[in-house]
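quick one
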Amino acid sequence: MFNKLKDKLNNFKQSIGKTIDEKAVDLEEPIVESVEESIGETTEAPIEDTMVEEVTEVVKEVPAEPVKVAAEPSTQGQSDVPESQPEKKASFKQKIGFAQKAKALVFEREVILDEDDISDALWELEMALLESDIAITVAEAIVEAVKDELVGSRKKIGSNTGELVEQALRNAIYNVMAANVFDLDEYIEKADKPVHIVFIGINGTGKTTTISKMAKRLKDMNYSVVIAAGDTFRAGAIDQIAIHAERIGVKLIKHQEGGDPAAVVYDAVQHAKANNADVILSDTAGRMHTNVNLMAQLEKVCRVSTPDLIIFVDEAVAGNDAVERAEQFNSAVPIDGSILTKTDADSKGGAAISIAYITGKPILFLGMGQGYDDLQKFDPKWFVDQLFE
Ligand SMILES: Nc1nc2c(ncn2[C@@H]2O[C@H](COP(=O)(O)OP(=O)(O)OP(=O)(O)O)[C@@H](O)[C@H]2O)c(=O)[nH]1
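structure w/ guanosine-5'-triphosphate:
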C-alpha cells in the first residue's frame, strides 16, 4: 500500500536530512577551530575523542556562568579553587575554556535553516506529491507546513536529522487529513434509530461491495441492518447485492430491475421502522454528477426518504479523478463523508491524502481488499504511520 509515495517521502527525508547535516557541519567547524586554538594555547596535541569526553565531564561540573570564578584568578587571593592546588587550578581553567567553546558541539547540536537551504528539496517534495496524485492545493499546503516547521526556528538536530524531517512531514500530512474527523460508530450509537445511510458514486468503484462490508461490520456490532437494493439501473446489480445480503444474513428490500429506486428505498425505510431495525444501507445506481436524469433520480431518493447520512464512495486508485468527483458530487448532493475503496491496490495515496481537505468532509473508511472484513475505519494517525512504517 502506498509504496511509491513511501519511497518519495523517504527520498525527501534523506535529501533534506543531508542538507541539514551539511549545514550543521558548516556551523560546527568554527567551533572546532576555536576549540583547537584553545587547546593549542596549552598543548600541541590534536583534538581527540577522549578530549571531548573529558570536556563533557567538565561541562557537567561548570556552572552556567563560571568564567568570573575560574577564568581570572582573584587578585585578592579569592577563588573557588584552593590556592594550595595551583596546578589543578590551571588545568581546571583550561578545561573550562574548552568546555564552554565545545559545549555547543557536544550538547547543543543546533541549526537554523533558512529557506534557501531547503528550497530545492521543497520543490522536489512538491513535485513528488503531485506525481503521487495529491491535489495541487493539498500538495502546496503540505509543502508550506513542512517549510514553516523546518525554516527559521532553532532546531536541535541531535544525531538523527531524518527524525526531524519525518516529524515535519508527519505533522503536515496529518493536518491536511484530519479535517472534520467523524466517528460513524459513535454517531450510529447515539442517533435515533433507524439510521438511514445512502451510498453514492460512479459505476464500478466498489459501492456494492462496500455496502456489504458495512452491513457485515454493523451486524457484527449487533445492529439489525436492512439493505435497500436501490441500483435498479444496472443489469445484475440487484442479484449481486442479494447474494451479499444472503451471505451476510441481513434483510434486503428489492424491486424489479428498472423500477423506481426512490420507491425501493422508501419501502426499506418503512420495513426498518416497522421491524425496529437499527440501520438502513441504501445502494444507488452508479452515475456521473453530470448525468442530469440520474442526479434528479438521486435527489428524489433523498427527498422521499431523507437520509441521515450521504456517503460518497470512490476508488483510491483513481487518484485525482476520485477527488474531483467527490468535489462535484458534494456540490450537487452535499455528502457527509467519503469511503475510498481499493487502497490495497493503490501505490500513490494521493486520493486518500487529498479528499478530506478538498471536500471539507472526512474519510470514514478505507476499503482494503475484496473480503467482507477488509474495511478499515479511517484514522489519520494510523494512515500517517503507514506512510513511515
Ligand atoms: N482490491 C479491492 N477490490 C475491491 C475493493 N472494493 C471493491 N472491490 C472490487 O471492485 C469491483 C467492483 O465492485 P462493486 O462493488 O461491484 O462496484 P460498484 O461500485 O457497486 O459497481 P456498480 O454496481 O456498477 O456501481 C469488484 O470486483 C469488487 O470485488 C477493495 O477495497 N479492494
